[in-house]
Design goal:
23 helices; Aldehyde Ferredoxin Oxidoreductase,  A, domain 1; alpha+beta; homodimer
Chain lengths: 578, 578
């Protein structure tokens, strides 16, 4: 993993590849790599869909090794949704495979002169790029099927659906899972639109003939991995809750806590929660012969993903995640798991971010385009996105655009990006993260739900403003570092609660690279990543006035706790004082 | 003109009026009044369509007197299009009438709980407000006709069409002209959407029984006005060019100068220019029994407006302005005056900004929604805006939104507002104004076309970057002051070239208010207004990085001069150094 592959999609005569060593980017991986390249090489005021933007695809520092949970792939660029820097990461196979192929990053640069669509194939023999307009407007499932026929079953794919080709703000980039299905998405920020603007439909990876990455100190690495896995298995969240019910275990918890945004952030709990909860979902999956406990990539031991079958017992989609069940479910007043699963399938197939898509439909329902609770209408609307009808184009612009187009006031976005499944009024720590993260509203950027709701890593009362700044700051720093390792963020549950599991993570990095990293070093890495990102955003025109929630959160009380978001602006401005 | 009328549209039990004296706003008028109230009373981070925004309607300092040209009405708010402060002004009758009724400002505040539509009637007896849902979705012409039947022929109206009710970013506020037609629009920045969000369809004004405003020093005022009118009549632009051909006299001039944005800012001159020029237009109008020389308000002596008849010699619309003939004409490759006149009528009737609307259609043509040059398609698209179809909603969002929805890179906007009819690469002074005005891209904010093209107020080579900063700075300051007087900005041609005409303007203000204002005082007023506006924008999150043109203007050369916009960023940052 000592090379960077650059592909100039705008070169005269067609795409041109250059392979270099890591140079100044040595020692970086995942989000640290994508943010460093974007911050250094992309003009902050460029058009996100123009030749000056770059799409950076990077496995994490530990990806490609035998380390458990190291399969996250980071994709970065200037975001067409937020106008700021973006890193979006996903599970699935590509991070491991790309790392084993030896690439620390793929950088897509420039812009083709016409609308030719390309596929890129990377294997042990090198890189080949071919125009293939037969792929135009293929949904992700069909596309992957075609690639399988063409290149065999040993591949994995990084691809866009029709939404990415149409350069929609909601467009995601799909990564195939262990079953070679396009179910794991770098969803947020419209990264799929940037891939579409580069004219790249799919990157096919095949690591046949390559071996697992060798750490500097193999014995110490193996030992650290053993302790790391033990720690994950021991913790109740990563060892029990997530494997049994997946992320959707949160539906009942959040609705009971009064922090479950319902009817486009009108209230904090949902009457239909139990009908779409992780418990109900897992039971249904088992009944239909599907599987609620499943890993999304090689080396996953938490196994929070799953498989969802339709009423006839046939594969419909992967087990919808909590955020998806919320965005298409409670947020739109929908309590029908089969409808939500269908929406999840459509999202994956068209290639859109399920969070942004569901939040957008919530705003459209607020505008009167459909009735809250109307699952059939929601399905029809997502299909329109895939078809690129005028209404589909509006919704494909995301929640902020949809709000503007229909003149809606209640639009739950920060920096143009829709909020995920936690109401910031009743989970104030996550509100601080939404407001201040350089990514726009993003739960994974500093997942304060841990201490606010799950009592992991301590407890901070979710309904009070006290303590939320420190909580969010620490989590944002830790997350920026973890996102650079290739580790799934869910390791945080165990790492936050168990010092020995955190030590095992450090030992993995040290044994892999021959380092002497301590906890302080991880904090420094996290701060460095956040600083690069904030500095890019500042040059793109962002100020502290963009680190704010929409004002209705501080003005409208949320039932059942009758709370507003009352963290003071001057405190929000202290999140990055370190 | 010593009172402020405030109407709380969100008061319990229905709209509630309060009339106060001027208080801290004494001595302000027009843009100085609207910007002062918005800057002081509107939270910069509020939602533009929410209860916290205010719509301020203010006649100028000299409106309502006998002073020639004093009929501009300023309307201000936080703009839903730009997200910053907005002042948009128009001619027509309302400024004179409102001033004679004694109001220095109407401030619409709050937000109705439901979607009831209101009409407000103001006459010598006071203010009455009535719900009238029969007016819903009425286009402006029908609406005014209904008001005429209800309240007689002595009224004038300030109203919104369907676009304002739908809270579209392109929505304007119409002011009726001397023939009681809704032809003069506060177009820019989506002010109509804010009026729509307040639930106000129309403000009917009737100054029957009121008298002309009396200046402090009547004889000096009369004398100053005489000298002022003499100066206007003497200058070739205000005394000859504008009366004969209207603003559209500029089409041939700009196209010949290579600064006429054609095919969505792809080239700088238009082959069809002579077919849609002011000269051709005036000839056609005369042939059809219409009138190319006509004033838009009482007291206008320049008379640059006119009347446009259709092929059958029947009234179709007012004489389309240069900016409209450009936006719907050359910018979209359309060279058919009758089609452009129809588009002008539709814009006025639906209630949209002709500049934003035409620029938006240009972007839609760039996206392939219609062919450049297809006038029928353009008419169909504008009709869709009026109907609020999904495609109409997209276009109603303006050029920036349309660009985002369709993934277009070439989108000529600054701060979200579309550029008018001068390419900043070939008229660099206006480029500086576009980039730096607190209003977003706006030609009237600092009309450097004077010295760049018309050689009025000196000459600064339009193709070179030298001298443009000073030119734009001086004009922006002067304009902010003139926009506060109620004077039509076209007086600037004479005032810039003829010191005695500038003195006459000062004498008008001094005689009216008993002041001793000098040229320096006017400059101070202009700086004060700009400073308030920029300070509001800074609190709304704007930085110097928003004072930039889209990057394609500095990267793509404009034919025929093969120029880019090369004024340096650090120089743009000096515009407001005074």
């Amino acid at each position: 993993m000592d090379r960077i592959l650059r592909i100039d999609m705008g070169a005269e005569g067609g795409p041109k590849t250059t392979i270099t060593d890591l140079g100044e980017y040595a020692g970086l991986g995942g989000r640290a790599m994508t943010s460093a390249i974007v911050a250094k090489e992309v003009p902050p005021l460029c058009h996100p869909l123009g030749a000056e933007n770059k799409l950076v695809i990077a496995p994490g520092l530990l990806s490609g090794t035998i380390a458990a949970m190291s399969g996250r792939l980071s994709i970065g660029c200037k975001s067409p949704l937020t106008g700021g820097i973006k890193e979006s990461n996903a599970g699935g196979q590509p991070a491991q495979v790309l790392a084993r192929l030896g690439y620390a990053a793929i950088v897509l640069e420039g812009k083709p002169a016409d609308d030719t669509l390309y596929k890129i194939v990377i294997n042990k023999d090198g890189v080949s790029i071919a125009a293939d307009n037969s792929l135009k407007m293929k949904p992700n499932y069909d596309l992957v099927e075609k690639m399988k026929q063409e290149f065999g079953e040993k591949i994995c794919c990084i691809s866009i659906g029709p939404a990415g080709e149409m350069k929609m703000n909601v467009a995601s980039i799909a990564c195939t899972d262990m079953e070679l299905r396009p179910t794991r998405h770098c969803g947020r920020g419209g990264v799929g639109a940037v891939m579409g603007s580069k004219g790249v439909k799919v990157i096919v990876l095949d690591d046949s003939g390559m071996t697992v990455r060798a750490p500097k100190n193999p014995d110490a690495f193996k030992d650290a991995n053993r302790r790391f896995v033990e720690g994950l298995m021991k913790h109740p969240v990563t060892g029990q809750g997530l494997p049994a019910y997946g992320t959707n275990v949160l539906t009942n918890i959040l609705s009971e806590a009064g922090g479950y945004p319902t009817f486009n952030f009108k209230q904090g709990s949902f009457d239909g929660a139990s009908k779409i909860s992780g418990e109900t979902q897992a039971e249904l999956e088992k009944k239909r012969g599907a599987n609620p406990t499943h890993g999304c990539h090689r080396g996953c031991v938490i196994r929070c993903s799953g498989i969802y079958h339709d009423k006839d017992g046939k594969y419909l989609t992967k087990q919808p995640e909590y955020e998806t069940v919320w965005s298409h479910g409670g947020n739109c007043g929908i309590d029908d798991l089969d409808a939500i699963a269908m929406l999840d399938f459509l999202d994956d197939n068209i290639g859109v971010d399920t969070i942004e898509m569901g939040a957008t439909i919530g705003v459209a329902m607020e505008a009167g385009i459909a009735r809250f609770g109307d699952a059939e209408a929601a399905i029809r609307l997502v299909k329109e996105v895939g078809q690129g009808t005028p209404l589909g184009r509006i919704l494909g612009g995301g929640a902020a655009i949809t709000g503007k187009v229909f003149g809606v006031e209640r639009v739950p976005v920060v920096k143009g990006q829709a909020m995920p499944a936690y109401d910031p009024r009743a989970v104030k720590g996550i509100g601080v993260t939404y407001a201040t993260s350089p990514m726009g509203a993003d739960h994974t950027a500093g997942y304060a739900v841990t201490a606010n709701i799950l009592k992991v890593g301590g407890y901070v009362d979710p309904l009070k403003s006290e303590g939320q700044i420190t909580l969010s700051r620490d989590l944002q720093i830790a997350t920026a570092a973890v996102d650079s390792t290739g580790m799934c963020i869910f390791i945080a549950f165990a790492v936050l609660d168990q010092p020995e599991t955190f030590q095992a993570l450090l030992d993995l990095l040290n044994a892999c690279y021959g380092l002497n990293l301590t906890g302080d070093g991880v904090v420094e890495l996290g701060k460095k990543v956040l600083s690069m990102e904030r500095e890019f955003n500042a040059r793109a025109g962002f100020t502290k006035d963009h680190d704010r929630l929409p004002r209705f959160f501080s003005q409208e009380k949320l039932a059942p706790h009758q709370v507003t978001f009352d963290v003071k602006d001057e405190d929000l401005d202290k999140v990055f004082n370190w």
